[in-house]
């Protein structure tokens, strides 16, 4: 979902859309264009809460701003319903890439759960192949329009289901055909990573990277499980890691003392995939406040964590990566160097070979220097 008005870095005339960016946490079924939903729904006879694109987009934003991850997730019943055919998956994936490219994304990891797209006869492998076809078409079209973009799939298993190993095997079958990593998603509380230990064992034995949603709707034990059972190289959101950091005032200065989990995440540079607007919508940071300035990402950044900024679900949050960066820049008085640091964090955490990560960082540096 693109916007006509660019988001300027506060105090400058620099449009954030013009800067190269890395997107690590962006759900395929959370990034549909409202008009596409209307057209796909019409083709399958699905009744929608609104049949005007603007009104439908507003409905998603309103329903998602509930303060509850469980309620937030209910909006996906609509988007996944129109993503049950090869044609639907290909179109959504193609447009997803085009929207990322229009926002200046040069590397995007696109996560989704194939097991949620089987109601109209597709097999798991066929869904992955359909999404990859759409991604490939989107990349080709975007490059034809002058954009520099690469993308990879993150195959997710749903935490409440018992298909973890099956989905891990699926990801491994497609590791050389577009799939770059594994994830678990869905309701976090009550469904720890340990439920899928066999899947994570298989992935570890196959040297395949995983990111795990943790520290969004559950606390420190969920993060601990993601690290121990999931061998997570990144934490999806991870904002409740703040529960393991104690802040004290000494002589006019604030001193941060890290607990063992926070220290492990920082010292090993396990990336935090924060999604500021989404984290406010779902109540993930409710213990510390309800405004952007209350988000712990700045504290993580100041303490040297590998913190990144993401969109999570562009449709539900009515957002883009450029908008998210503009919001945090406004909240925390970030300048161009800060935004570059956040992008370099994301590049270093990307599920890419080291040579590709280094080339990606060069692209980011060149693009940001060119904005001056």
TrEMBL record:
It comes from the Bacteria. Residues 20-365 form the Adenosine deaminase domain. Its EC number is 3.5.4.4. Its cofactor is Zn(2+). GO terms for cellular component: cytosol. Keywords: Hydrolase, Metal-binding, Nucleotide metabolism, Zinc. The keyword Hydrolase applies. Belongs to the metallo-dependent hydrolases superfamily. Adenosine and AMP deaminases family. NCBIfam families: aden_deam, PRK09358.1-2. PANTHER family: ADENOSINE DEAMINASE. This is adenosine deaminase. It comes from Microcella frigidaquae.
């Amino acid at each position: 979902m693109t916007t006509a008005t660019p988001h300027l870095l506060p105090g400058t005339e620099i449009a954030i859309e013009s800067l190269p960016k890395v997107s690590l946490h962006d759900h395929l079924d959370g990034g549909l264009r409202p008009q596409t939903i209307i057209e796909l729904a019409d083709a399958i006879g699905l009744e929608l809460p609104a049949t005007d694109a603007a009104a439908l987009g507003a409905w998603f934003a309103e329903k998602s701003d509930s303060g509850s991850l469980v309620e937030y997730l209910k909006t996906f019943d609509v988007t996944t319903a129109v993503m049950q055919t090869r044609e639907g998956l290909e179109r959504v994936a193609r447009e997803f890439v085009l929207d990322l490219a229009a926002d200046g994304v040069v590397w995007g990891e696109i996560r989704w759960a194939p097991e949620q797209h089987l109601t109209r006869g597709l097999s798991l492998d066929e869904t992955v192949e359909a999404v990859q076809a759409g991604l490939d078409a989107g990349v080709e079209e975007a490059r034809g329009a002058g954009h520099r973009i690469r993308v990879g799939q993150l195959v997710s298993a749903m935490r409440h289901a018992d298909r973890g190993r099956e989905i891990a095997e699926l990801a491994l079958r497609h590791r050389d055909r577009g799939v770059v990593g594994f994830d678990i998603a869905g309701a976090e509380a009550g469904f720890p990573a340990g439920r899928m230990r066999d899947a994570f064992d298989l992935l570890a034995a196959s040297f395949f990277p995983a990111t795990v949603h943790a520290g969004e709707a559950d606390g420190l034990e969920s993060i601990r499980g993601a690290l121990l059972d999931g061998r997570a190289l990144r934490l999806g959101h991870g904002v409740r890691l703040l529960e393991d950091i104690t802040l004290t005032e000494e002589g006019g200065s604030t001193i941060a003392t890290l607990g063992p989990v926070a220290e492990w995440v920082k010292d090993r540079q396990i990336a935090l995939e924060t999604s500021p607007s989404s984290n406010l919508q779902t109540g993930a940071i409710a213990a510390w406040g309800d405004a952007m300035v209350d988000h712990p990402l700045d504290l993580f950044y100041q303490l040297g964590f590998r913190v990144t900024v993401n969109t999570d679900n562009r449709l539900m949050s009515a957002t883009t990566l450029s908008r998210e960066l503009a919001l945090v820049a406004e909240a925390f008085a970030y300048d161009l160097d800060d935004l570059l640091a956040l992008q370099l964090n994301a590049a270093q955490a990307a599920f890419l070979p080291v040579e590709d990560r280094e080339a990606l960082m060069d692209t980011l540096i060149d693009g940001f220097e060119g904005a001056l």
